Amino acid sequence: xxxxxxxxxxxxxxxxxxxxxxxxxxxxxxxxxxxxxxxxxxxxxxxxxxxxxxxxxxxxxxxxxxxxxxxxxxxxxxxxxxxxxxxxxxxxxxxxxxxxxxxxxxxxxxxxxxxxxxxxxxxxxxxxxxxxxxxxxxxxxxxxxxxxxxxxxxxxxxxxxxxxxxxxxxxxxxxxxxxxxxxxxxxxxxxxxxxxxxxxxxxxxxxxxxxxxxxxxxxxxxxxxxxxxxxxxxxxxxxxxxxxxxxxxxxxxxxxxxxxxxxxxxxxxxxxxxxxxxx
Length: 279
Description:
Shape: globular
Strand order of the largest sheet: 1-2
Number of helices: 9
Largest sheet: 2 strands, antiparallel
Distance between the termini: 43 Å
Number of domains: 2
Radius of gyration: 19 Å
Order of helices and strands: HHHHHHEEHHH
């Protein structure tokens, strides 16, 4: 590993972690601001990548605006401020896409619509579910139901898994995990990521004994496995679109989508685990 690249990657990673902590620990308004920006940048990078497969540009402004509207609608729904905006936003988005298919004469119009909807499912839905996850514990009346503990656990498990897999895989990796998608990932790194994530779960069990060690370890295992799938899936998208990174925003890491790829699959899996086994 090149020392300069390693330092650049570490410095950018620390800044990214601080931004995430600000969004999670700062409360619901901070969460909305930070993850709203992350959502907008992630959608922009995604649509910029996939529009290469169409003969006309995908409307990034339209999709980003509706993604943010859906994101805010979920918050208002959780706060019981507006129960109608969320279904209206979803219906309005779909109707506008269908109208464009009917009235815009383009041979590849279905490509644009499919990519548009998939971007919302792939990015907007998981980040909205992340917000739902923060409301899964209603024992915090002083914060209006907002609970940052499951969010912090989710991010820590993802970071530990990614970091351990990266370093152990770089140092000792000899057996490729899925080389046709991600040649750099190794079986050794994959196993190391899971082991270190389980160890992190034991620390959380001591700090937050509301859940047992086995429950925390189950949560960590789900996050590690689904996060790896998310990482591999984004690698597949980039390989399909013939790009190395989704963007260049974060030195040593690529774009914002390259940093949240594990999160996008881990959030639905973590939420499902939470409602089945912990609530």
